[in-house]
Amino acid sequence: MNRKTLVLAAAIGLLAPVLAGCGDTEGGSGDGDAIVVGTTDRFTLSKDDPAPVDPAYAYDVGTWNILRQTVQTLLTQPRGDGAPVPEAAESCGFTDSGNERYSCTLREGLKFSSGDPITAADVKYSIDRALAIEADSGVFALLSTIDTVETQGDREVIFHLKSADATFPYKLSTPVAGIVPEGSYDKDKLREGFDIDGSGPYTFEPEVKDGELVRATYVKNPSYKGSLKVGHGKIEMLSYESAEAMGEALESNEIDIMTRGMSPEQITKLANDSDDTVDLVESPGLEIRYLAFNTDAPSVENKAVRQAMARVINRGELVAKVYGSQAEPLYSLVPATVTGHSNAFFNLYGDPDVSKARELLGKAGITTPVKMTLHYTTDHYGPATKAEFEQLSKQLNDSGLFDTDIEGTGWNTFKTAGQKGKFDVYGMGWFPDYPDADNFLAPFLDEDNFLNSPYANTEIRKKLIPETRRQADRLAAVNSMNQIQDIVAEEVPVLPLWQGKQYVAANDNVTGTAYLLNSSSTLQLWELGRGVSG
To answer: Looking at the keywords, is Transport present (predicted)?
Structure first.
């Protein structure tokens, strides 16, 4: 086993300029066999989720990983980290001192994969469409600071913002800002099914069985013109029901790469295996896990109950027993290594303390044990999720203050049930849309938040979030960010648990795996190639 540990943050300064300077490329092997990638992400059509890959609706890491290969955005996030760089645009920037007017000039000769030209009007149409539809997923909220979109000629797009937003370039690099053709996407209706029309580095050919995407084929887009260099002309992605099945597929050479959904046991085995035909690449990640609360639900509407849970749960023990060295305890929504991180929950609650939790509940007049169900998804965050919730339930029950059980639900049903308030307490993960503290705070706490949470704090929404967005220098926004985290620790609308690393396992004749995932867990399939790895 050749175990590779990659610390992307140390290389940011070197990588970003290289990517920005790529320009138009004709790379890619084109010939030869496909590189086959395995995942445990499941993609299923349903009544509640009929349009999973429409950019105006998609809002989870799996569907975004499909869109990032196929639908072009004005800007893109670089290999490691750092500020977004031009992609469909040749240049972008604020044109005022208040960060309220943002202008982009498109590259010349942009085309959709159909061969039709892309103009500034297509960009305006795509953004206006996402805002007008206001999909239940809440993804449109990423564009909520936009007031109007203006075009000047065929190549210039000007965004007039409602208020200062220094994070706006990051938001234009996300799939909700993807450019789509008007003829394929209705203005006021989502596009159902798995078909995608875009201008990204790859075209997309879905293979669907009984409403479920079982295989996706990515073929180099001959019309693509952007900043990304395509390393291989054909990539296939297969979806597996379990980490075990995906692992067996790697062993039998059915796939070349394992990505999302590996089990802790698989990672440990691969790290210690003497087989030198498979590489395990470990890199820092910004994935977080947390408990979300329906703060209107009778079992948890009193914040003393949520505070008592924060007092009782032992993150260190949870991580050690379930994930080992593959995760770290997290004491805020903002993970370590992101500017603005603080240990707000540890600062307020300290080490687990059952007696203080009992005192909290007693002062609030809460009868114990407090009975509740902890809900988790069975098929989205990896096979260890059930074990994680078994440990959480045990910790709470062993305190004598809670009487909990657990219940698992498939992701397709789970995410909708959470947004509709059907769960009092449920476990969620977050893969950032972009690596800035704003994206670990606003999506949970602002208006139109993706959880559809009933929790609302006026100081956070009206004062602190706007303050953080006015600061182009993110260090200058830290004080407001810390105030938000302190309020969250006090009121506990969500309870952060841990922050994870990310892993890729690949046959050693595949190159580019070190950059297959960026810090936001975004798949960058264009990085892959065939050859001899180092």
So the answer is: yes
Phi, then psi, of 175 in degrees rounded to 5: -60, -25
- The HSE-up count of residue 190 (CA atoms within 13 Å, CB side) is 22
Gap between the Cα atoms of 529 and 534, Å rounded: 13
Residues contacting residue 247 through CB under 8 Å, at least 6 positions apart: 258, 262, 266
Q: How far apart are CA 528 and CA 503, in angstroms?
A: 15
- Answer left, alpha or beta for residue 92, where phi above 0 means left and psi between -120 and 50 means alpha: beta
Q: Work out whether strand 75-76 and strand 370-377 pair parallel, antiparallel, or are unpaired.
A: unpaired
Q: Which residues of 58-70 are buried (b: 16+ CB within 10 A; e: fewer)?
A: bbbbbbbbbbbbb
For residues 77 and 289, the model is more confident at 289
Q: At what angle do helices 315-322 and 385-398 cross, to 10 degrees?
A: 140
First to last CA, the chain: 12
438-451 in b/e form (b: 16+ CB < 10 A) is bbbbbbbbbeebbb
Q: Rounded to two decimals, what is the model's pTM?
A: 0.88
Query: What is the predicted pLDDT for the residue at 27?
Result: 35
The helix or strand, by DSSP H or E, that contains position 468, with its residue range, turns out to be helix 465-469
